[in-house]
Amino acid sequence: MNQADAGGVSRRKPARSVLRESCGSSTMDGVQHHESWKSAGLGSSCCGGFVSSKVAKSGGVDDQKEGIINRVFYEGSRKAGSGSRRYSLVTYKELPEYMKDNEYIIRHYRANWPLREAFFSLFRWHNETLNVWTHLVGFLVFVVLTMANLVEVPQVADLLGLFTRPNSTIADTNVSYNSEELLLAKSLIDLKNITMGQESMRLMAVPLPAAPLPAATTRWPFFVFLGGSMFCLLSSSTCHLFCCHSHHLNLLLLRMDYVGITIMIITSFFPPIYYIFQCDPHWQLIYLGGITAMGVFTIATLLSPALSTGKFRAFRAMLFSSMGFFGIVPAVHACVVNWSNPQRPITLAYESVMAMSYLTGTAFYVVRVPERWRPGWFDLAGHSHQIFHVFVIMGALAHYGATLVFLEWRDKTGCGN
Ligand SMILES: [Zn+2]
Question: Which segments carry the region annotation Disordered (predicted)?
Answer without folding.
Answer: 1-30
